[in-house]
Amino acid sequence: MRYTLDQACERLSGYSHAYGVTDVKTAINAAVQALAGLSGWECLRRVVRTISAGPVFALPQGCAGLVRACVNGRPMTVRGQDFQFLQSGPGDVVARPPRGFTLVPPSNVERTGDRPTVIEPVGPFRLFAFTEGASEPFLTVRGLDAQGRIVRANLPMHERPTYDPSTGALLTGSEPEDTEPDSGELVQITEVVLDKCATSYVSLYARQADGTTVRLAQYHPTIRVPVFQRYRIAGIAPDQPVEILAEVRIDPLPLIDDSDVLPFEGIEPIEYMILYSWKMASSEVDAARKYKEEAVAWLRSQEIAANTVQTQFTINSSPIGTMGDISMESANI
Predict the structure, then answer these.
(1) How far apart are CA 304 and CA 298, in angstroms?
(2) What is the rounded distance in angstroms from the CA atom of residue 212 to the CA atom of residue 206?
(3) Mapping DSSP to helix (H, G, I), strand (E, B) and coil, where does residue 305 land?
């Protein structure tokens, strides 16, 4: 059974002003983050389908990384960041391998690291930001200018435009294309930091040298240092449209609204982790370890129950692109 944040707060209300808990919501979010980092829980995996312009794409906030992926209906192999280097992978010379190396077949999805934006702007560019709320604090961006110097820009918030639903006329705010950028010229963005008082989603835009306006990313207000997991698909031409079916690991976003749903089925493991934090703060390491073990055992038992199904399991399947493709005319043993 899944629970909402207000149900969890009601269930754990007895911990308010006890066991070091001054805010139940804060304690619940801390427990959820701690549980998410203990293991690659199956309940923290989601199957998503998206369309992107290759060869580079980024996962949205709340996604910790790819587990499995299919590109244009074909199963791909997900590679780590070390695969980019020549001693273990293709490096940056996929199209022109050096003497003695052969082309890497286009069947890999390679991780390229973390970035503060979904889209990499073409430099030089200038930045500005939009927000959904009024009187939001500024956005801090760090990057490099054309001289290679590290610069910081504090971007004030522009009001997101609203339109008349009947006529489509602009009511408030301004269009991104008509907004004057608020930063100097940059060639690379290294960090983005949201103010701790942010309460609404923030969108970062760039005005490129050719005059085009590009939305680089949209940020959750409670993630102060946002990063996006970036991947590259081998064998895909620039701006080639691709359809991606992926299983991703979830990095739970902080629960804010009372209607937000807990990522785990049950409140018991969250309760155990609250007690674990209190025992660790009290230097009772052995007691804290027992509470953590109880939380892990509870979640593992839930996974065992969820995986108890009756289904046929085929080892050597025959669809095109699978391991059984080479033996379609052979009988499975």
Answers:
(1) 10
(2) 8
(3) helix
Task: Give the C-alpha separation, 179 to 170, whole Å.
Answer: 14
Q: Tell me which amino acid residue 319 is.
A: P
Residue 295: both structure tokens together: 């939380």
Q: What are the φ and ψ backbone dihedral angles of 177, each rounded to 5 degrees?
A: -65, -20
176's CB contacts (< 8 A; 6+ apart) are 128, 130, 205, 213, 215
Instruction: State the Cα–Cα distance between residues 274 and 45, nearest whole angstrom.
Output: 24
Per-residue pLDDT tens for 114-150? 899 999 898 799 999 998 776 778 899 999 998 889 9
Q: CA 121 to CA 284: how far, in whole Å? A: 50
CA–CA separation, 144 vs 111, rounded Å? 23
Cα distance between residue 31 and residue 18, in whole Å? 15
Torsion of the alpha carbons at 78, 123, 132 and 136, rounded to the nearest 10? 110
Measured between alpha carbons, how far is 277 from 117 in angstroms, rounded to an integer?
Answer: 33
**16-73 pLDDT per residue, tens:** 777 677 788 888 989 999 998 888 888 888 898 988 887 888 988 888 889 999 888 8
Considering the entire predicted model, what is its pTM?
Answer: 0.77
For residue 95, count CB atoms less than 10 angstroms from its CB and return exposed for 0-12, middle for 13-18, buried for 19 or more: exposed
Q: Where are the domains of the chain?
A: 5-41+264-306, 44-116+229-250, 125-226
Residue 305 CB partners (closer than 8 Å, separation 6+)? none
Range scoring the smallest mean pLDDT among 84-88, 94-98, 268-272, 309-313: 94-98
